[in-house]
Write a structure and sequence with these properties.
The complex is a heterodimer of chains A (261) and B (293). Helices cover 80% and strands 0% of the residues of chain A. Chain A is built from 10 helices and no strands. In chain A, 35% of the residues are buried. Chain B is of the alpha/beta class and 293 residues long. Chain B is built from 11 helices and 10 strands. In chain B, helix 4 (124-134) packs parallel to helix 6 and helix 8 packs across helix 11 (273-287). Classes of the chains: A mainly alpha (261), B alpha/beta (293). Chains A and B meet through helix 7 and helix 8 of A and strand 6 and helix 4 of B. Bound molecules: adenosine-5'-triphosphate (ATP) and magnesium ion (MG). Adenosine-5'-triphosphate binds next to strand 2 and helix 3 of chain B.
Chain lengths: 261, 293
């Protein structure tokens, strides 16, 4: 990174911080002057207090325990989705028979929004880890599969032709050309899937759970503690933000040759 | 060697080739390429009108010959190269390399593509090595060939760069090197120097002559530059506008005689009046075919 882009980045960060500060200030003013009732919008101080209560342990679980509860569901469902979705997407793009066999199934299942699976998942797998894992799996397999499929389909014909000219057989074409060429788009799918997995687990915990951030938010709602609700939402946001950040860092290291934003 | 046309090719060579070139050329005759009534049309399968890109193209390129094709944009030059490289099959007609019909691509028919075609996830070295790896060239030999070509293409010190870190001209030079290291029988080059600036272009033209002379694969070279064509070619094929047909074939050796001028530096050659005359002649042929649409 050269000096210019460093200045640019610092400038952007500073600008972002200012706008965040303005929002926080407005939030504080609105609640402090009683313009909006405490019941609808808790004051920043109250939320901070609730966050402290959360981290000390809320409804039988510490903050870490809630985090672990949510994350374990996310990771198990997400990893399963990656392991099945990416190879399946690649295979469908590469092999016409597989495309013909699986295409219609994918086309029918894809438009179902993940939360619509929640009741069925509970019916099939119960309210514990397996049920929620399944919902996360369903929500994150779609971006994995679709991106892998498109990535392989859209490998520039030029690269395939060049490889064939150099003497690549079918296996080399797939493993040494098409898949590496598609990697940036596949990685993009994996990142979208991770976000989708996180969103879905919270939704699932809102419906039925005994721990996790979604459960925290819902408990805040049931107990009419809007500050707990807000603190739970902030925990969801921060965790999602950090996951995305980590993913981008890994991506930059694994695919150094691609154009990164 | 029961092959129709061989006699004609040979007669051609004996007449045109100088004493030193003749030996090399007649030593082996397995690498000539033949286009027999080749036509290619695209599309038209979904109700649209098919585009006739190449129309009844017949030509024999002798082994070790440096053939240059010029013609207006869209006249089917790239299409011809793709067919010669075995990437696509003609709608009608046949192509053969030596005694074998051309049915599939392979490292014996190397292609320098018109547009960007390096593998973005491979470094310069990996890009150059990839073809050799695919074809089981030993590590020691791979290293030897890389050491030979890397300085020639002027990319020493850039071994570990990714294509996105190179200029367009540098990328194209890597694309050329990755073909040369394969020691192809046929080298197909589609406007390989179009992305280079004038100075680099001249240097690369002269270097190409030098490395080509070492192994003398049969070359089909496409360019928009008449000057480049006249400097490099044994023969120049001028194409008509689409559908591409052969308009004229000009044998540069008729002008240069036995000692081809491409062995000398370009700036020196450009001062020759016979060079300028030929250049004017080729340019006149092309000008008629250019239409502004
Ligand atoms: N894959 C394809 N599908 C349909 N039409 C094609 C295809 N490839 C080429 N054509 C058409 O065939 C004609 C010849 O194309 P080609 O690329 O061979 O021209 P060219 O002589 O190489 O042109 P240029 O000098 O601009 O590179 C063009 O009209 C083009 O539109
Ligand atoms: Mg072209």
């Amino acid at each position: 990174m050269n000096r210019r882009t460093t200045y640019l980045r610092v400038g952007q960060l500073g600008f972002g911080a200012v706008s965040l500060g303005v929002i926080l200030f407005a939030w504080w003013q609105v609640t402090a002057n009683g313009i909006v009732s405490e019941f609808l919008l808790p004051a920043p101080a109250a939320v901070f207090e609730a966050a402290q209560r959360l981290s000390a342990g809320y409804l039988g679980s510490s903050l870490t325990a809630h985090l672990v509860a949510s994350l374990s569901v996310v990771l198990s469902g997400y990893i399963a989705a990656v392991l099945i979705g990416v190879p399946l997407g690649i295979l469908m793009a590469w092999s016409r028979p597989v495309d013909i066999a699986m295409g219609p199934l994918v086309a029918i299942l894809r438009p179902i929004p993940p939360p619509a699976w929640i009741p069925l998942a509970i019916l099939w797998f119960g309210i514990d880890l397996p049920g929620k894992t399944f919902i996360v799996f369903v929500s994150s397999i779609t971006p994995c599969l679709i991106n892998a499929y498109v990535a392989i389909k859209e490998v520039p014909a030029n690269l395939i032709n060049a490889a064939r000219m150099l003497g690549a057989g079918n296996a080399s074409l797939l493993f040494r050309v098409a898949i590496p060429a598609g990697l940036p788009m596949i990685a993009n799918g994996l990142r979208i899937a991770l976000g989708s997995a996180w969103a879905t687990v919270v939704a699932a915990e809102l419906v039925v759970a005994t721990a996790g951030f979604g459960f925290v938010i819902m408990s805040g709602y049931r107990n009419i503690e809007s500050d707990i609700m807000a603190a739970g939402m902030i925990a969801v946001a921060v965790t999602g933000f950090i996951m995305n950040l980590l993913f981008r860092e890994v991506e930059k290291r694994v695919i150094p040759w691609a154009e990164h934003e | 060697m029961e092959r129709a046309g061989v006699g004609i090719i040979e007669a051609d060579l004996v007449m045109d080739a100088g004493p030193c070139e003749r030996d090399i050329r007649s030593a082996a005759r397995g690498n000539g390429i033949r286009f027999q009534n080749v036509s290619m049309s695209f599309g038209g399968n979904r109700g649209g009108h098919p585009t006739l890109a190449v129309d009844d193209f017949s030509l024999e390129v002798a082994e070790n010959e440096f053939l240059v094709i010029v013609g207006p944009s869209g006249c089917g030059k790239s299409t011809l190269l793709a067919m010669a490289g075995g990437l696509t099959q003609p709608t009608t007609g046949r192509l053969s390399l030596g005694d074998e019909p051309i049915v599939k691509p392979g490292p014996d028919k190397a292609i320098v593509f018109q547009t960007f075609s390096l593998f973005p996830w491979m470094t310069v070295i990996d890009n150059i090595e990839f073809g050799m790896r695919l074809n089981g060239v030993s590590p020691a030999e791979r290293q030897r060939r890389i050491d030979y070509y890397l300085p020639i293409i002027g990319l020493k010190g850039f071994e570990d760069h990714y294509p996105k870190q190179l200029s367009g001209g540098m990328q194209q030079r890597v694309a050329i090197a990755r073909c040369l290291v394969l020691r192809p029988r046929l080298l197909l080059m589609d406007e390989p120097f179009a992305a280079l600036d004038a100075q680099n272009r001249t240097v690369m033209q002269e270097e190409l002559v030098r490395v080509w002379s070492a192994h003398r694969p049969t070359v089909i070279f496409v360019t928009h530059s008449v000057e480049e064509a006249v400097f490099l070619a044994d023969r120049i094929v001028v194409m008509t506008r689409r559908p591409g047909r052969i308009k004229d074939v000009i044998d540069v050796r008729d002008t240069t005689g036995a000692q081809h001028w491409r062995a000398a530096p370009l700036d020196q050659v450009m001062r020759r009046s016979d060079f300028q005359d030929l250049r004017g002649r080729v340019w006149d042929l092309i000008r008629d075919e250019i239409v502004i649409e």
